[in-house]
Amino acid sequence: MESSSILDSLGVEIIGVMAPVSICMFLVVLLTYSLSVTSDTQIRTAANLIYIENPSDSATVKLEGSLENAIVFVVLVAAVTFILVLLFYYNFTNFLKHYMRFSAFFVLGTMGGAIFLSIIQHFSVPVDSITCFILLFNFTILGTLSVFSGGMPILLRQCYMVVMGIVVAAWFTKLPEWTTWFILVALALYDLVAVLAPGGPLKLLVELASTRDEELPAMVYEARPTVSSYQGRNRGSSLRALVGGGGGVSDSGSVELQAVRNHDANQHGRENPHNLDYNAVAVRDIDNVDGNANGNRDSVDRSPLVGNPREGHFASSISSEHSTAVGIRESRETVADEEMSPLVELMGWGDIEEEPRGFEESDNVENLKRGIKLGLGDFIFYSVLVGRAAMYDLMTVYACYLAIISGLGCTLILLSVYNRALPALPISIMLGVVFYFLTRLLMEPFVVGMTTNLMMF
Amino acid sequence: MAAGIGYALVALGPSLSLFISVVSKKPFLILTLLSSTLVWLVSLIILSGLWRPFLPLKANVWWPYALLVISSVCFQEGLRFLFWKVYKSLEDVLDSFADRISRPRLFLTDKMQIALAGGLGHGVAHAVFFCLSLLTPAFGPATFYVDRCSKVPFFLVSAIIALAFVTIHTFSMVIAFEGYAIGNKVDQVIVPVIHLAAGMLTLVNFASEGCVIGVPLLYVLASLTLVHCGKMVWQRLIESRNQSSPSL
Fold first, then answer.
1. Hey, of B19, B24, B34, which one would you mutate to test binding to chain A, going by the most A CBs within 10 A of its CB?
2. Residues on chain A touching B138 (C-beta within 8 angstroms)
3. Domain edges within chain A
4. What Gene Ontology cellular-component terms does the record carry (chain A) (predicted)?
């Protein structure tokens, strides 16, 4: 069938975000499962500065201590984020980028190295230290280069983002139990405030980046299509159109041919194709969304310029990202200072400004800013939750995984409704925590009781 | 290690291949699968919440278990109807959306695929929570037998039973959706009946060495579901081809 059904195309964007998150969580669970025996050592990070949990402590002591830990951690995170915003505000962008590279180097080199070492020990992989060092060094350098440089294939960058998420999350799963839960909840709340409240640091950061039309100086996973296939292109808009329901979804390409001033509310810039060859196709395909698009379809096709409306202003860009830069020095006094800017970014749906066109030659640069973006921090803390669940039972892992993924799905749907930066942590983490405890307290005895008698339904 | 993976594949292998061959190509189906898995999980949590005060049940009387199975099946069948309602409105949204971007509406096969993905979600959730989540010990060197079924390792039995249930859940969802869609009373009724019968058949395992009888019976039921589903889908496809070919 040459006219494929809409089933083929719907939801690619969502899956594009969910797949890496799932991979990240899966690998963290594998790591915690296989390494859980060897890693009993308490770690010392910013997350447990105040109180070091002892399994023998009473519940109240644990409660207070972990609460304090969580508060201190969130305050630290907030402070670092504000510093980040300040630096960005005063245009220290290069410094920030170099700092991010440095921290990526450190995360991959030290924490990643530690994890590699424990894997090698655990599975007794026969490898000599020189080879190991060279491999690690190459791996780290490639990862460092892949952060913030345009020349890298997007797939590589995405892989390294996932790897960094795994490394940091695997590190955080070594935190004691109560502290982990409190920190997760506290971070989810902080995320909510920082992205949505007026004056929240992440909101400021995103707005700043969008008004300046710069890349966010943070570690963000971009769910751009890895291959510029025709398939994965117009999903954002289709989701948007589907959720938004109303007829006001106009294709930016066709809109821009007309007098552009008539857009009041509902015209959205679309994520647009990577290169010109695809533009005509994609535009032709999409502009049917708009009722009035038929008239100007021809002109759209004729003019390749239209294909990529350069909406420089992502005024209402939706974003949630966490940049996490962890500088770890030594295992003794390791202070994981990290800045997290939790928000998801969905660029390219901002209002279309009338912009001088003719930038299509710089397409690649432009296109770096399109697609759903999910902060590295979201990856990390989702995985921390799942990894923590993995220490109890497989059942809780599945429940938490489903809860987190559905929370992410809800966030993405909200994203296309509200069209602005949204925190990705709160819904997912809350659902995850609730499901964890429900599963552990209610479901486990039920299911175990049933199955050991070989009852099922 | 190998044994654990083997058990997991016994329970989930067919659904894995279904997932790879049908579902994973279409993102929307993946989303359907995930949401139906979530629905099933929520239903399980609610059920366990309801039954929590009465647990643990006495190990030697069977009727509380029968009650439990009946109540659970009724609840889940009710939930299936709700799921259908939600899907129905979703289908309308999708159709109007398809109209808006002037693509063809959902084909019959699309609808069936969505139903299949939904059923697969239920089945996978079942297998995951009732079989896979208990498999952790099976990755170690030892195994475990229950008294009432002393010939076969517990994990293997539960994997085999889970496979039967995966089949029943997956295809009964297709049957049920088709039954609701064309208003076929038989199909609407047969699904809860199959589900209930399957649940009741597991009660046979309660008797000493009952699993020797119960499991084959369960498989008879599963294959009945499969055959019925296949026949129905085939019929529908033929019908729709006959309908559409004159108009072409």
1. B34
2. none
3. 6-226+369-453
4. endoplasmic reticulum membrane; gamma-secretase complex; Golgi membrane; Golgi-associated vesicle
